[in-house]
Hints:
lipopolysaccharide transport protein A fold; 34-stranded antiparallel β-sheet
Amino acid sequence: MKEEVLLSLIRHREYPPIKSSKISSNPQKGLFLYVSWFMILLCVIYSPLKAQNIVEILRFESAERSIYNQEPVQRLIQARLTVDGLTMVCDTAYRHLNRSELLAIGNIEIKTEDAIIWTDSLRYFTKNEQSLLRGRVIIEQENTRLFGTAVDYNFEEKIADFTQGIKLIDSTGVLTASKGSYFEDQDSALFIKNVQLLTEKEYAESDFMILARKSKKSYLSGNVLIDNLTEQQRIRADSIYADSTGFRQLIGNAVIRTIDSPVNDTLDNQTPEITPNIESDTTFVFAPYINIYDQDSTFIFQSDSLSQSWSTNFSTRSDSLKYVSEFEQFTLTGQPVAWYDNTELSAQTIIAKIDSSELSILYLLHDAFVTVREKESGRFNQLKADTVVTRFVDGSIHTMTLEPNVTILYFTQNEENQNDGAIELNTPLANIRFVEDDIDELSTAASQGFVFEEDSSLSLRRLEGFHWNPDSRTEKPFLSLEYRFTKVASQPPFSLPPRYQKYVNEKKSIDFDPR
């Protein structure tokens, strides 16, 4: 039958009796002596109580005094004990007799006020409530489980430092890093080096991450990459801040790449293969800073810094950019310029509407100017108006409507495709139809203008506000958006300890995936 024993780290001390003496004839001197003796006695008694903590042994199969690492210890087999409010069970416990330290080995389970801890070994320092957990270490708080092999745990502050790898698993996904810290009271965590996050919808990686779970805020830093596995979109930045509202701030060298063709982005394939027509269906947006608002079915991103976008046939540059997924619409302001094929377009505001990854409508609002370079002659057809609306069919320019205050400079060619002069028109309204991106038909309202006979000097004619800056045209960014790290393992990094496995089996009725 197992014994119930109460052992204490407090050693009984015998204090020398206070010798009696006659009361001094000097009352002040006598009072001083009595007060002094009382304070000394109080300090002697209180000091060991303050410095030591109590280990209460509730149950054990056997106990013996022995020598462990050349020190006297009390060795307990199959022990159950409490220390500083913690309840612990283990295969073997060594209570050091000469110092405030407890060593537990084998199949350990520790229950605190808010968490349960499993480990293969525990070295517990009772003076400062600091402990070293080694082997297979698991910490559970509510529906969060952390795994590691070397954890320094402070039971007073409830802080766990994972020095040789950390894996956090909950109902939403898996988060791993080379090392990190978990703050139990705040339900927050810090992850350092080779940080990886995997959920059903996203994969993320970075060099550093702070996660505030209660407030649902996070901050990632250092070569941050986020892959939206359902929308085929990848995000990159030097650092990213995110919160529970769907807001994300991309800070430093921000890039958003969207692919509209099918790709094999799945949890089982961490390095997806892109279909051969990826380039024709890929859009890049990049800026120093980008803010993302992702709520319900609406996805919005906006940048108020120098912004650029690129796709195979269409690219832009502006001081600010905004995209709204509900309307599939880009809005550019701040000296915006757009390029399509051999055309450069500018205005105070440019709005581009997309349909199934193809450019559908392009609005140039206020001081619109369009420059079209003829492929054969190299001359510049020029169009200016307050507003220009261009419509596209299957990604190719189809019609263009200009109004009001329209001025058009159009260079003509004869049947032999030779230069044949130019026409300059002023009209309140003009409609142009294109065939294979070349002007096929021009119709205007009441207009006036000039007809110029062919002359080599016509090539130099320019309308006021002329723009042609091919060197400023946005080019495809050459940067890597591939994963830096290997596939995330969703399983624990080691075989499960027996007591933990028993705990999981008893908790099967709770909807929780231990992975």
